Amino acid sequence: MSKLIASAAIRGAHTLVKQAEELLEKTTAEKGKDFTFEFPDTAFYLPMIYAMTAFPVKTLGDMKVALGLAKELLHDEPEEHLWKPYLGEALDSGMATLFAEELLLALKYINGLEPAKDPETGYIYNGFITDTIQRNLGIQLVDGTMPGFAAIIGAAPSDDVAVSIVRELQEKNILTFLSGNVNGNSVTKQLLRKGVELGWDTRIVPLGPDTEHTLYALDWAIRASLIFGGKKPGDYKEHLKYQKDRVFAFAVVLGELNDIIWTTGAGAINMGFPAIADTDVPVIHPTGVCIYEEVDKELDHGKIVQRAIEQRGLKITVEKPPIPVAYGPAFEGERIRKEDMFIEFGGQRTPSFEWVRTKELNEIEDNKVIIVGDGWQEKYEKGGQMPLAIVIDTAGRKMQKDFESIIERKIHHNINEAQGLWHMGQRDLNWIRISSNAKKEGITLEHIGVVMATMTHHRFKSIVDKVQVTIYTDEKDVLAIQEEARKAYKERDQRLGSLTDEAVDIFYSCLLCQSFAPSHVCVISPERLGLCGAYNWLDGKAAYEIDPTGGNQPIPKGALMDAKYGRYTGIDEYLKKASAGAVETLNLYTIMENPMTSCGCFECIIAIIPEANGVMIVQRGHTGMTPAGMKFSTLAGSVGGGTQNPGFMGIGRNFIVSKKFLHGDGGIKRIVWMTKNLKEGLKDEFSKRAAEEGVPDLLDKIADETVAEDSEKLLEFLTQAGHPALSMDPML
Ligand code: SF4
Ligand code: ZN
Prior knowledge:
Layout: H1 3-31, H2 47-53, H3 60-72, H4 87-110, H5 131-136, H6 138-142, E1 149-154, H7 159-171, E2 175-179, H8 187-193, E3 204-206, H9 214-227, H10 236-246, E4 249-254, H11 259-270, E5 275-277, E6 295-297, H12 304-311, E7 341-346, E8 352-358, E9 368-372, H13 376-382, E10 384-385, E11 388-395, H14 404-409, H15 411-416, E12 421-424, E13 431-435, H16 436-441, H17 445-459, E14 466-472, H18 475-498, E15 506-510, E16 522-524, H19 537-546, E17 554-556, E18 560-562, E19 567-568, H20 569-578, E20 604-609, E21 614-619, H21 632-639, E22 648-651, E23 671-674, H22 676-692, H23 698-701, H24 711-721
Parallel strand pairs: 1-2, 1-4, 2-3, 4-5, 5-6, 7-10, 8-11, 9-14, 21-23
Antiparallel strand pairs: 7-13, 11-14, 12-13, 15-16, 15-17, 18-19, 20-21, 20-22
């Protein structure tokens, strides 16, 4: 390693440790050493320090201990005349820096200085990244829709260059964190000046104005090995290896480097994250720590993103339909307000629907877009509102009627991923907007058809051989064909309702999360969807047809060994292999004995409340206390990582209203507490299920956070309400 870099990394670490120490002393003098602190919504204390050392920092007193750990990693600057390999010292210093930065930021939170606010614009940075956000993004990380993460530090030479770099990252679906500044200027400010929409929805997340704020991104990364990887706190070697092998992060440093950037970079190199700079820096090319180069330079801003991607070893293939606007999942979160809108369809304003049909191969012409309607061009050019039917005809040797709904569900993404196009709802309740900007860029009605054809082919390669799209714009046509579509929707729903675990011989596995949680397998049956909520049995079936060697494999369920608990010979056999021995046997319908494992991206957690002889359910994102005595974040910490934990389980939200929900434990009558959000969201289906179970008013007997957040109050409420769980067989 270059002596210049090593010296800078070591100096920077000393500076930051000193800063942290000063702020710690000041804060402790004011608040006392027992003052407690936690970052917002995390179960992992100060995550970097916790993952590396297993030391849970809870108080200012603990911070002093942690600072001691950072100091142990400090080294002296290499002397002028000495030659020695500096890599170890520089990397140690980098780790000391990450500890010091984490302490500094925690202390700033205590002092009300975080999340930082920009004094000029009033813009509030993201600050610490919560566990909830991490879990929300879980599936996108594993299914490849989000292939990597970039941390951009500093400022681009011009606002336009900043925009073009970030757009390129967006188009490659890379999540981008922004931090640092060059003489007060930063990419965040450059994008704000250019009116670029920032935030999680657009995958550009400004963390804070200083280099130190980059730590929030690293804190986020390190929680992946805690949450999904099941790596034990303190097992630093395992954590660092996991980061290098599975977390595809890299840094792009824009503008001059200083000691703080070098030392933070040294910290990131520990985790296997390389950096690329746009200035003439000394490069480091030893392999081993990172996959390829550790520090590199690329002076051409048009090439810097591509170089960074190669440097981290990412393989990115992006399918973009031939349309005149940018395209990719990063544009999905974009809103189109009324003022920015050129034209809209549906949304209860005009008749509108979308429908996927199956046709014979000879009935349709591939990639053809037909627009039907008198003078539709003029009507479109006027803007405002317009009726719209999108009918997608598909044909293919492997196409099945069961796949129509799956292809149809992607219409939402197909449209939303185009910059300046917006979609909401589904079927005959859809709503589409085209922005004035997109219109200016040349978007026409035909492009909607083009997007559908391209993306349907792309997403369903081996199912669909031909796609033809017809767009109707006359109200009478739209209304007439809508009737046919409604009949088809109804038939589909009936078919779906008749799909039971007993009615099929094959279940599907989902192994997608194994890239993060190596021993986790979701077993997906018609009556139990994957715990992330994104994959049901039909999805599994379609995914297997699309990619027979992919993440969804058929599991012949075999012989039924236990009807009450849902145990099958075929599933046990499959799991032994697929979970690398972690799961010997699985019961699909109970939480008490060999329940399903959890990776980390569950929509909800069920936990037993022994005092109430029942279970509680809390969804991701709920930050309040629960009667289990733990918040979601803490509960989640003990459920994930791919192990079976009797009494605790992650589930997909819709499983709650399945007939197989805890079937072996007494079904939905076991639910004694559920958040208001879940109660309201599932109301209709839940009431139907409750009636089937003979307790039509069950929902009213179930407590929520407004009546109880501890088990004592919960019991009071249940007794008063006469909840059925109180008189059921004991769970334990
Ligand atoms: Fe992960 Fe299970 Fe969802 Fe598949 S279904 S993505 S394994 S949580
Ligand atoms: Zn998962």
